[in-house]
Amino acid sequence: MSDYDTVSADVEHEEEIPADHPRYQDLLTRHRIETGIEKGITHLQGMHAEGRGSAFDYLLGEETIPSADAAERAAAAHLLLADQPVLSINGNVAALVPGEMVDLASAVDADLEVNLFNRTADRVEAIAEHLREHGADEVKGLTADARIPKLDHQRAKVDADGIYAADVVLVPLEDGDRAEALQEMDKTEIVIDLNPLSRSPQVAAVPIVDNIIRAVPNMTEHARDLADADEAELRSIVDEFDREQALEEAEARIRNGL
Ligand code: PTJ
To answer: Interior CA angle at 155 toward 162 and 136, to 5°?
Structure first.
């Protein structure tokens, strides 16, 4: 019997998953989503989303490809240049990278806002509390006193002094029309999604085709690295980033392993 056979099928704590297991990242994300569902943070549909994501990640080689790293650096530059950046949090994001989102918010001085597709008051509160447990001082999204125009579902509910007023918004792990609606509001959108053909990355100024568990810490690292950069340097990073090329390179890696 190999060591890997000793990984319980019913892991209680993520520390039980050996870090050198060949499927470590996949086992870890699955475990975090399951725990999120148990805690009332993640919707059951989040498990389907995770399954879709992990299939694309498998084809990407479960690594941050160079075009994704360039997108993560451009995203960090956009967030540092922003007047009012907001990081949007749904049930999968809260389960997978709560502390990492708090770190990114602090590195770029952004707000965190809960925004849900399957919105209930209990889930919004549970996610806000989970983020506070991971170090967040303030979490937006509970007031929901504004609406994104031309959107007729729960994701339209936003805070007037949060996503509604933001100039740059990070939108991770959602395929949908909110990305298009936010773009119509003239916001700069950064999207994290492992599926480059999904609608959100297709409309984003910065599409990041990478697993969120790698993408967010890497964005924070880039933001810390750029903390002393002047506006001209940040603008040149933003201007040099080619969104079409990033989407094409991700699709080529997924389809052909190139
Ligand atoms: O918490 P709620 O109620 O707001 O609901 C959240 C989910 C994720 C259930 C909802 O937004 C949803 O159904 O999303 P979709 O339409 O399944 O889109 C999720 C996208 O995220 C898919 O394109 C997946 O490929 C992608 N994805 C899943 N896991 C990851 C990912 N991208 C990056 N990293 C991941 N770990």
So the answer is: 45
